[in-house]
Amino acid sequence: MFAAVDLGSNSFRLHIGHYDGNAIRVIKSARDPIRLGAGLDADGNLTPQAMRVAAESLARFATVLAAYELDAVRVVATNTLRIAKNADAFLPEAENAIGYPIEIISGEEEGRLIYLGVACSLANPGERRLVLDIGGGSTELIIGKGLDILLVDSFSTGTVRQSDGFFIDGRIDAASFEAAIISACGYFEDAAPLYKAHVWDTAYGSSGTLRSISEAIAKNGLGDGRLTLASLNALKQRLIEFGSVAAIQLPGMKPDRAPVLVGGLAILIAVMQELDIAVMQPIEAGLRMGVLWDLQLRATRRDRREQSVRAFLQRFQVDEARAGRTADIAATLYARLRPGNDATTRPLYWSGLLHEVGMAVSHSGYHKHGAYMIENADLSGFTNRDQRLMSRLILGQKGNLHKLDAMLTEPDFVRAVLSLRLAVIFMHARIEGSLQQVGLRIRNRIELEFPRDWLVAHPTLSFWLDKERDYWKEVGTDFQVRLAG
Protein backbone atom coordinates (compact mmCIF):
# COMPACT_ATOMS: atom_id res chain seq x y z
CA MET A 1 0.00 0.00 0.00
CA PHE A 2 1.38 3.38 -1.02
CA ALA A 3 0.60 7.02 -0.30
CA ALA A 4 1.13 10.06 -2.52
CA VAL A 5 0.92 13.58 -1.12
CA ASP A 6 0.85 16.52 -3.54
CA LEU A 7 1.67 19.95 -2.12
CA GLY A 8 0.21 22.06 -4.91
CA SER A 9 -0.19 25.79 -5.25
CA ASN A 10 -4.00 25.57 -4.98
CA SER A 11 -4.52 22.55 -2.74
CA PHE A 12 -2.69 19.96 -0.71
CA ARG A 13 -3.97 16.55 -1.77
CA LEU A 14 -3.45 12.96 -0.71
CA HIS A 15 -4.07 9.55 -2.28
CA ILE A 16 -3.61 6.21 -0.57
CA GLY A 17 -3.66 3.35 -3.05
CA HIS A 18 -3.32 -0.41 -3.21
CA TYR A 19 -1.94 -2.33 -6.20
CA ASP A 20 -4.24 -5.26 -6.93
CA GLY A 21 -2.03 -6.95 -9.51
CA ASN A 22 -3.51 -5.03 -12.41
CA ALA A 23 -4.27 -1.48 -11.33
CA ILE A 24 -3.83 0.86 -8.39
CA ARG A 25 -7.08 1.28 -6.48
CA VAL A 26 -7.39 4.51 -4.49
CA ILE A 27 -8.84 3.66 -1.09
CA LYS A 28 -8.50 7.05 0.58
CA SER A 29 -8.29 10.63 -0.68
CA ALA A 30 -8.04 13.96 1.08
CA ARG A 31 -7.94 17.56 -0.15
CA ASP A 32 -7.20 20.81 1.63
CA PRO A 33 -7.67 23.94 -0.56
CA ILE A 34 -5.23 26.20 1.28
CA ARG A 35 -4.08 28.15 -1.84
CA LEU A 36 -0.41 28.19 -0.89
CA GLY A 37 0.45 30.04 -4.10
CA ALA A 38 -1.48 33.07 -2.86
CA GLY A 39 0.71 33.09 0.26
CA LEU A 40 3.78 34.52 -1.47
CA ASP A 41 4.62 38.11 -0.58
CA ALA A 42 5.98 40.78 -2.93
CA ASP A 43 9.54 39.53 -2.38
CA GLY A 44 8.67 35.94 -3.30
CA ASN A 45 8.69 34.61 0.28
CA LEU A 46 5.98 32.54 1.92
CA THR A 47 4.32 34.64 4.60
CA PRO A 48 4.32 33.42 8.22
CA GLN A 49 0.57 32.88 8.00
CA ALA A 50 0.90 30.82 4.80
CA MET A 51 3.56 28.63 6.44
CA ARG A 52 1.43 28.18 9.56
CA VAL A 53 -1.65 27.16 7.55
CA ALA A 54 0.44 24.77 5.45
CA ALA A 55 2.01 23.14 8.51
CA GLU A 56 -1.40 22.69 10.10
CA SER A 57 -2.68 21.05 6.92
CA LEU A 58 0.30 18.70 6.81
CA ALA A 59 -0.26 17.72 10.44
CA ARG A 60 -3.84 16.73 9.53
CA PHE A 61 -2.51 14.67 6.63
CA ALA A 62 -0.07 12.97 9.01
CA THR A 63 -3.02 11.78 11.07
CA VAL A 64 -4.64 10.30 7.96
CA LEU A 65 -1.42 8.53 6.94
CA ALA A 66 -0.91 7.11 10.43
CA ALA A 67 -4.17 5.15 10.15
CA TYR A 68 -2.78 2.92 7.38
CA GLU A 69 0.03 0.36 7.16
CA LEU A 70 1.98 1.87 4.28
CA ASP A 71 4.88 0.34 2.38
CA ALA A 72 6.06 3.70 1.05
CA VAL A 73 5.07 7.36 1.17
CA ARG A 74 6.20 10.07 -1.21
CA VAL A 75 5.48 13.75 -0.61
CA VAL A 76 6.07 16.03 -3.59
CA ALA A 77 5.90 19.82 -3.74
CA THR A 78 5.38 21.74 -6.97
CA ASN A 79 5.61 25.29 -8.26
CA THR A 80 5.07 27.43 -5.16
CA LEU A 81 7.79 25.70 -3.18
CA ARG A 82 9.96 25.64 -6.30
CA ILE A 83 9.92 29.43 -6.49
CA ALA A 84 9.51 30.50 -2.83
CA LYS A 85 12.77 32.10 -1.74
CA ASN A 86 12.37 30.85 1.83
CA ALA A 87 11.33 27.31 0.90
CA ASP A 88 14.48 25.82 2.45
CA ALA A 89 13.70 27.55 5.74
CA PHE A 90 10.12 26.22 5.71
CA LEU A 91 10.92 22.62 4.75
CA PRO A 92 12.11 21.40 8.19
CA GLU A 93 8.88 22.61 9.81
CA ALA A 94 6.79 21.11 7.01
CA GLU A 95 8.60 17.76 7.15
CA ASN A 96 8.24 17.64 10.91
CA ALA A 97 4.49 18.26 10.57
CA ILE A 98 3.83 15.44 8.10
CA GLY A 99 6.56 13.09 9.32
CA TYR A 100 8.09 12.38 5.89
CA PRO A 101 10.70 14.00 3.61
CA ILE A 102 9.30 16.51 1.15
CA GLU A 103 10.66 16.49 -2.39
CA ILE A 104 10.49 19.75 -4.33
CA ILE A 105 10.25 18.39 -7.86
CA SER A 106 11.14 20.16 -11.09
CA GLY A 107 8.48 21.10 -13.62
CA GLU A 108 9.78 18.39 -15.96
CA GLU A 109 9.58 15.75 -13.23
CA GLU A 110 6.08 16.95 -12.40
CA GLY A 111 5.17 16.49 -16.07
CA ARG A 112 6.67 13.01 -16.13
CA LEU A 113 4.67 11.91 -13.10
CA ILE A 114 1.47 13.45 -14.49
CA TYR A 115 1.94 11.56 -17.74
CA LEU A 116 2.76 8.32 -15.89
CA GLY A 117 -0.48 8.61 -13.93
CA VAL A 118 -2.50 9.22 -17.08
CA ALA A 119 -0.79 6.55 -19.18
CA CYS A 120 -1.16 3.84 -16.53
CA SER A 121 -4.87 4.65 -16.24
CA LEU A 122 -5.61 4.18 -19.95
CA ALA A 123 -6.26 0.88 -21.68
CA ASN A 124 -4.67 1.68 -25.05
CA PRO A 125 -0.88 1.20 -24.68
CA GLY A 126 -0.12 2.27 -28.26
CA GLU A 127 -2.11 5.50 -28.20
CA ARG A 128 -0.31 8.72 -29.03
CA ARG A 129 -1.54 11.37 -26.65
CA LEU A 130 -1.16 14.95 -25.48
CA VAL A 131 -1.67 15.59 -21.77
CA LEU A 132 -2.39 19.00 -20.23
CA ASP A 133 -2.31 19.76 -16.52
CA ILE A 134 -3.23 23.26 -15.31
CA GLY A 135 -2.03 23.70 -11.76
CA GLY A 136 -2.08 26.59 -9.35
CA GLY A 137 1.45 27.77 -10.12
CA SER A 138 2.45 26.07 -13.37
CA THR A 139 1.02 24.33 -16.41
CA GLU A 140 2.48 21.14 -17.86
CA LEU A 141 2.22 19.89 -21.43
CA ILE A 142 3.36 16.38 -22.32
CA ILE A 143 3.28 14.33 -25.50
CA GLY A 144 3.83 10.61 -25.31
CA LYS A 145 3.07 7.23 -26.81
CA GLY A 146 2.10 4.48 -24.43
CA LEU A 147 4.37 4.85 -21.40
CA ASP A 148 7.07 6.73 -23.32
CA ILE A 149 7.35 10.51 -23.09
CA LEU A 150 8.34 12.26 -26.31
CA LEU A 151 8.14 15.89 -25.19
CA VAL A 152 7.49 17.61 -21.86
CA ASP A 153 7.46 21.26 -20.80
CA SER A 154 6.47 23.15 -17.69
CA PHE A 155 5.21 26.72 -18.10
CA SER A 156 5.35 29.20 -15.24
CA THR A 157 1.72 30.20 -15.27
CA GLY A 158 -1.16 28.70 -13.37
CA THR A 159 -4.57 29.46 -11.99
CA VAL A 160 -3.30 31.57 -9.09
CA ARG A 161 -1.28 33.92 -11.30
CA GLN A 162 -4.02 34.35 -13.89
CA SER A 163 -6.87 34.66 -11.38
CA ASP A 164 -5.16 37.08 -9.00
CA GLY A 165 -3.36 39.03 -11.73
CA PHE A 166 -6.28 39.79 -14.03
CA PHE A 167 -9.51 39.41 -12.04
CA ILE A 168 -8.67 42.00 -9.41
CA ASP A 169 -10.76 41.72 -6.23
CA GLY A 170 -12.71 38.94 -7.96
CA ARG A 171 -14.23 41.20 -10.65
CA ILE A 172 -15.08 39.40 -13.91
CA ASP A 173 -15.61 41.30 -17.16
CA ALA A 174 -14.87 40.82 -20.85
CA ALA A 175 -11.75 43.00 -20.79
CA SER A 176 -10.23 41.07 -17.87
CA PHE A 177 -10.86 37.76 -19.59
CA GLU A 178 -9.36 38.96 -22.85
CA ALA A 179 -6.24 40.22 -21.07
CA ALA A 180 -5.88 36.96 -19.13
CA ILE A 181 -6.18 34.88 -22.31
CA ILE A 182 -3.68 37.01 -24.26
CA SER A 183 -1.23 36.82 -21.36
CA ALA A 184 -1.57 33.03 -21.19
CA CYS A 185 -1.05 32.73 -24.96
CA GLY A 186 2.31 34.42 -24.49
CA TYR A 187 3.53 31.51 -22.38
CA PHE A 188 2.66 28.88 -24.98
CA GLU A 189 3.14 30.50 -28.38
CA ASP A 190 6.86 29.70 -28.73
CA ALA A 191 6.38 26.03 -27.80
CA ALA A 192 3.21 25.55 -29.85
CA PRO A 193 4.99 24.60 -33.13
CA LEU A 194 6.83 21.77 -31.33
CA TYR A 195 3.59 20.32 -30.03
CA LYS A 196 1.81 20.77 -33.34
CA ALA A 197 4.65 18.92 -35.09
CA HIS A 198 3.90 15.76 -33.12
CA VAL A 199 1.00 13.66 -34.33
CA TRP A 200 -1.23 12.59 -31.45
CA ASP A 201 -4.58 10.82 -31.31
CA THR A 202 -6.24 12.25 -28.19
CA ALA A 203 -5.75 15.25 -25.91
CA TYR A 204 -6.34 14.63 -22.19
CA GLY A 205 -6.77 17.13 -19.36
CA SER A 206 -5.70 15.83 -15.98
CA SER A 207 -5.95 18.62 -13.42
CA GLY A 208 -8.74 19.20 -10.92
CA THR A 209 -9.34 22.67 -12.36
CA LEU A 210 -9.80 21.24 -15.84
CA ARG A 211 -12.19 18.59 -14.57
CA SER A 212 -14.18 21.31 -12.76
CA ILE A 213 -14.43 23.27 -16.01
CA SER A 214 -15.61 20.12 -17.79
CA GLU A 215 -18.26 19.42 -15.16
CA ALA A 216 -19.48 23.03 -15.25
CA ILE A 217 -19.89 22.84 -19.02
CA ALA A 218 -21.63 19.46 -18.96
CA LYS A 219 -24.00 20.16 -16.06
CA ASN A 220 -25.01 23.61 -17.29
CA GLY A 221 -25.71 22.62 -20.89
CA LEU A 222 -23.04 24.89 -22.35
CA GLY A 223 -22.05 24.39 -25.98
CA ASP A 224 -22.13 20.73 -26.93
CA GLY A 225 -21.19 19.65 -23.42
CA ARG A 226 -17.62 18.76 -24.38
CA LEU A 227 -14.33 20.59 -23.82
CA THR A 228 -14.24 22.53 -27.09
CA LEU A 229 -13.44 26.17 -27.72
CA ALA A 230 -17.12 26.87 -28.36
CA SER A 231 -18.09 25.38 -25.00
CA LEU A 232 -15.24 27.17 -23.20
CA ASN A 233 -16.30 30.51 -24.65
CA ALA A 234 -19.89 29.83 -23.61
CA LEU A 235 -18.66 29.22 -20.05
CA LYS A 236 -16.57 32.37 -20.23
CA GLN A 237 -19.65 34.38 -21.19
CA ARG A 238 -21.65 32.85 -18.33
CA LEU A 239 -18.92 33.85 -15.85
CA ILE A 240 -18.86 37.39 -17.24
CA GLU A 241 -22.60 37.59 -16.61
CA PHE A 242 -22.03 36.76 -12.92
CA GLY A 243 -19.75 39.80 -12.69
CA SER A 244 -17.68 38.59 -9.75
CA VAL A 245 -16.13 35.43 -8.37
CA ALA A 246 -18.24 35.69 -5.22
CA ALA A 247 -21.45 35.60 -7.29
CA ILE A 248 -20.59 32.44 -9.25
CA GLN A 249 -23.19 29.70 -8.72
CA LEU A 250 -22.90 26.83 -11.16
CA PRO A 251 -24.32 23.33 -10.69
CA GLY A 252 -21.48 20.82 -10.49
CA MET A 253 -18.88 23.29 -9.27
CA LYS A 254 -17.63 23.35 -5.67
CA PRO A 255 -17.62 26.86 -4.14
CA ASP A 256 -13.89 26.70 -3.32
CA ARG A 257 -13.14 26.15 -7.01
CA ALA A 258 -14.60 29.51 -8.03
CA PRO A 259 -11.49 31.65 -7.26
CA VAL A 260 -9.30 29.54 -9.56
CA LEU A 261 -11.88 28.69 -12.21
CA VAL A 262 -11.58 31.98 -14.08
CA GLY A 263 -7.77 31.84 -14.32
CA GLY A 264 -7.84 28.17 -15.28
CA LEU A 265 -10.40 28.82 -17.98
CA ALA A 266 -8.25 31.59 -19.48
CA ILE A 267 -5.25 29.25 -19.63
CA LEU A 268 -7.28 26.41 -21.14
CA ILE A 269 -8.68 28.67 -23.87
CA ALA A 270 -5.14 29.90 -24.63
CA VAL A 271 -3.70 26.37 -24.89
CA MET A 272 -6.48 25.11 -27.12
CA GLN A 273 -6.12 28.14 -29.37
CA GLU A 274 -2.33 27.98 -29.63
CA LEU A 275 -2.17 24.20 -30.18
CA ASP A 276 -5.29 23.97 -32.41
CA ILE A 277 -6.91 21.41 -30.10
CA ALA A 278 -10.44 20.60 -31.27
CA VAL A 279 -11.60 18.69 -28.19
CA MET A 280 -10.03 17.64 -24.91
CA GLN A 281 -10.96 14.66 -22.74
CA PRO A 282 -10.94 15.15 -18.94
CA ILE A 283 -9.39 12.25 -17.06
CA GLU A 284 -9.38 11.35 -13.35
CA ALA A 285 -5.64 10.75 -13.18
CA GLY A 286 -2.55 12.86 -12.87
CA LEU A 287 0.26 13.73 -10.49
CA ARG A 288 -0.84 11.77 -7.42
CA MET A 289 -1.66 8.67 -9.44
CA GLY A 290 1.70 9.04 -11.16
CA VAL A 291 3.47 9.15 -7.79
CA LEU A 292 1.65 5.98 -6.71
CA TRP A 293 2.66 4.19 -9.91
CA ASP A 294 6.24 5.42 -9.52
CA LEU A 295 6.35 3.92 -6.02
CA GLN A 296 4.94 0.65 -7.38
CA LEU A 297 7.59 0.55 -10.13
CA ARG A 298 10.36 1.24 -7.61
CA ALA A 299 9.07 -1.62 -5.45
CA THR A 300 9.35 -3.98 -8.43
CA ARG A 301 12.86 -2.76 -9.32
CA ARG A 302 11.75 -0.80 -12.37
CA ASP A 303 12.98 2.48 -10.96
CA ARG A 304 12.83 5.35 -13.44
CA ARG A 305 15.84 6.90 -11.75
CA GLU A 306 17.98 3.90 -12.59
CA GLN A 307 16.92 4.18 -16.22
CA SER A 308 17.79 7.89 -16.23
CA VAL A 309 21.27 7.24 -14.86
CA ARG A 310 21.95 4.47 -17.39
CA ALA A 311 20.76 6.69 -20.24
CA PHE A 312 23.01 9.51 -19.00
CA LEU A 313 26.03 7.18 -18.93
CA GLN A 314 25.38 6.10 -22.51
CA ARG A 315 24.75 9.64 -23.69
CA PHE A 316 28.17 10.77 -22.49
CA GLN A 317 29.94 7.52 -23.38
CA VAL A 318 31.06 6.67 -19.86
CA ASP A 319 32.97 3.40 -19.33
CA GLU A 320 30.10 1.51 -17.69
CA ALA A 321 32.27 -1.34 -16.40
CA ARG A 322 34.56 1.09 -14.60
CA ALA A 323 31.60 3.12 -13.36
CA GLY A 324 29.87 -0.01 -12.07
CA ARG A 325 32.97 -1.19 -10.23
CA THR A 326 33.36 2.20 -8.52
CA ALA A 327 29.69 2.24 -7.52
CA ASP A 328 29.89 -1.31 -6.14
CA ILE A 329 32.98 -0.51 -4.05
CA ALA A 330 31.40 2.66 -2.68
CA ALA A 331 28.19 0.81 -1.77
CA THR A 332 30.12 -1.98 -0.03
CA LEU A 333 32.20 0.43 2.04
CA TYR A 334 29.18 2.54 2.92
CA ALA A 335 27.30 -0.47 4.26
CA ARG A 336 30.24 -1.24 6.54
CA LEU A 337 30.03 2.24 8.03
CA ARG A 338 26.47 1.50 9.21
CA PRO A 339 24.64 4.68 8.15
CA GLY A 340 21.79 5.98 10.27
CA ASN A 341 19.25 5.21 7.51
CA ASP A 342 19.20 4.20 3.86
CA ALA A 343 18.28 7.62 2.44
CA THR A 344 21.75 8.11 0.93
CA THR A 345 22.36 4.52 -0.18
CA ARG A 346 20.93 4.75 -3.69
CA PRO A 347 22.15 8.33 -4.37
CA LEU A 348 25.66 7.19 -3.42
CA TYR A 349 25.48 4.23 -5.80
CA TRP A 350 24.27 6.45 -8.65
CA SER A 351 26.99 8.99 -7.84
CA GLY A 352 29.52 6.18 -8.18
CA LEU A 353 28.12 5.33 -11.59
CA LEU A 354 28.21 8.98 -12.66
CA HIS A 355 31.46 10.04 -11.01
CA GLU A 356 33.41 10.36 -14.28
CA VAL A 357 30.66 11.83 -16.47
CA GLY A 358 32.41 15.22 -16.32
CA MET A 359 35.18 13.82 -18.51
CA ALA A 360 32.85 14.49 -21.43
CA VAL A 361 33.71 18.15 -20.83
CA SER A 362 37.36 17.91 -19.76
CA HIS A 363 39.72 15.49 -18.04
CA SER A 364 40.96 18.42 -15.97
CA GLY A 365 38.62 19.11 -13.08
CA TYR A 366 36.15 16.49 -14.30
CA HIS A 367 34.66 16.18 -10.81
CA LYS A 368 33.63 19.86 -10.95
CA HIS A 369 32.15 19.51 -14.43
CA GLY A 370 30.33 16.34 -13.39
CA ALA A 371 28.88 18.00 -10.30
CA TYR A 372 27.51 20.87 -12.40
CA MET A 373 26.07 18.51 -15.01
CA ILE A 374 24.25 16.34 -12.48
CA GLU A 375 22.83 19.25 -10.49
CA ASN A 376 21.44 20.94 -13.62
CA ALA A 377 20.48 18.02 -15.87
CA ASP A 378 16.90 16.91 -16.53
CA LEU A 379 17.08 13.48 -14.89
CA SER A 380 13.63 11.91 -14.92
CA GLY A 381 12.61 10.48 -11.57
CA PHE A 382 14.99 12.61 -9.52
CA THR A 383 14.10 15.53 -7.31
CA ASN A 384 16.18 18.69 -7.04
CA ARG A 385 17.29 17.51 -3.61
CA ASP A 386 18.43 14.15 -5.00
CA GLN A 387 20.46 15.84 -7.70
CA ARG A 388 22.05 18.33 -5.31
CA LEU A 389 23.10 15.47 -3.04
CA MET A 390 24.60 13.51 -5.93
CA SER A 391 26.27 16.66 -7.22
CA ARG A 392 27.94 17.24 -3.84
CA LEU A 393 29.13 13.63 -3.68
CA ILE A 394 30.58 13.81 -7.18
CA LEU A 395 32.27 17.12 -6.38
CA GLY A 396 33.68 15.59 -3.20
CA GLN A 397 35.08 12.44 -4.82
CA LYS A 398 38.59 13.95 -4.92
CA GLY A 399 40.60 16.97 -3.84
CA ASN A 400 40.09 19.19 -0.82
CA LEU A 401 37.07 18.77 1.44
CA HIS A 402 36.55 22.43 2.34
CA LYS A 403 34.34 22.83 -0.75
CA LEU A 404 31.69 20.63 0.88
CA ASP A 405 31.21 23.17 3.67
CA ALA A 406 28.35 22.49 6.08
CA MET A 407 27.52 19.10 4.56
CA LEU A 408 30.45 17.67 6.51
CA THR A 409 28.34 18.13 9.64
CA GLU A 410 25.91 15.45 8.39
CA PRO A 411 27.20 12.04 9.53
CA ASP A 412 25.70 9.97 6.72
CA PHE A 413 26.98 12.38 4.08
CA VAL A 414 30.48 12.09 5.59
CA ARG A 415 30.19 8.29 5.45
CA ALA A 416 29.02 8.49 1.83
CA VAL A 417 31.69 10.88 0.58
CA LEU A 418 34.39 8.87 2.37
CA SER A 419 33.12 5.68 0.72
CA LEU A 420 33.13 7.28 -2.74
CA ARG A 421 36.60 8.80 -2.29
CA LEU A 422 38.06 5.46 -1.25
CA ALA A 423 36.25 3.72 -4.12
CA VAL A 424 37.87 6.17 -6.56
CA ILE A 425 41.29 5.61 -4.95
CA PHE A 426 40.91 1.84 -5.22
CA MET A 427 39.95 2.20 -8.87
CA HIS A 428 42.98 4.42 -9.58
CA ALA A 429 45.22 1.90 -7.81
CA ARG A 430 43.61 -0.90 -9.87
CA ILE A 431 42.50 -2.97 -6.91
CA GLU A 432 40.25 -5.75 -8.13
CA GLY A 433 38.39 -8.59 -6.49
CA SER A 434 36.74 -8.90 -3.11
CA LEU A 435 36.86 -6.28 -0.36
CA GLN A 436 36.37 -8.80 2.43
CA GLN A 437 39.83 -8.00 3.82
CA VAL A 438 39.14 -4.28 4.03
CA GLY A 439 38.10 -2.85 7.37
CA LEU A 440 36.61 0.64 7.63
CA ARG A 441 35.33 2.54 10.65
CA ILE A 442 34.60 6.17 11.44
CA ARG A 443 34.05 7.53 14.92
CA ASN A 444 36.25 10.34 16.16
CA ARG A 445 38.65 9.37 13.39
CA ILE A 446 38.73 7.34 10.20
CA GLU A 447 40.32 3.89 10.46
CA LEU A 448 41.11 2.00 7.26
CA GLU A 449 42.62 -1.48 7.32
CA PHE A 450 43.74 -3.65 4.39
CA PRO A 451 46.37 -6.37 3.64
CA ARG A 452 50.01 -5.28 3.77
CA ASP A 453 50.80 -6.92 0.43
CA TRP A 454 48.43 -4.50 -1.32
CA LEU A 455 51.14 -1.82 -1.08
CA VAL A 456 53.48 -4.03 -3.09
CA ALA A 457 50.90 -5.18 -5.61
CA HIS A 458 49.50 -1.67 -6.08
CA PRO A 459 52.40 0.83 -5.89
CA THR A 460 50.28 3.99 -6.28
CA LEU A 461 47.99 3.12 -3.36
CA SER A 462 50.38 4.58 -0.77
CA PHE A 463 50.61 7.83 -2.73
CA TRP A 464 46.84 8.28 -2.96
CA LEU A 465 46.26 7.43 0.71
CA ASP A 466 48.94 9.89 1.85
CA LYS A 467 47.12 12.67 -0.04
CA GLU A 468 43.79 11.50 1.41
CA ARG A 469 45.18 11.66 4.94
CA ASP A 470 46.20 15.28 4.33
CA TYR A 471 42.79 16.27 2.95
CA TRP A 472 40.96 14.91 6.00
CA LYS A 473 43.50 16.51 8.35
CA GLU A 474 42.66 19.91 6.82
CA VAL A 475 39.05 19.56 7.99
CA GLY A 476 40.02 18.35 11.45
CA THR A 477 39.62 14.57 11.00
CA ASP A 478 42.39 12.09 11.70
CA PHE A 479 42.79 9.38 9.02
CA GLN A 480 44.66 6.26 10.09
CA VAL A 481 45.74 3.34 7.91
CA ARG A 482 46.46 -0.06 9.42
CA LEU A 483 48.11 -2.91 7.55
CA ALA A 484 47.09 -6.49 8.24
CA GLY A 485 49.20 -9.62 7.72
From TrEMBL:
Keywords: Hydrolase. Residues 305-468 form the Ppx/GppA phosphatase C-terminal domain. InterPro entries: ATPase_NBD, GppA/Ppx_hydrolase, Ppx_GppA_C, Ppx_GppA_N, PyroPPase_GppA_Ppx. It holds the Pfam family Ppx-GppA. Residues 22-297 form the Ppx/GppA phosphatase N-terminal domain. This is Exopolyphosphatase / guanosine-5'-triphosphate,3'-diphosphate pyrophosphatase.
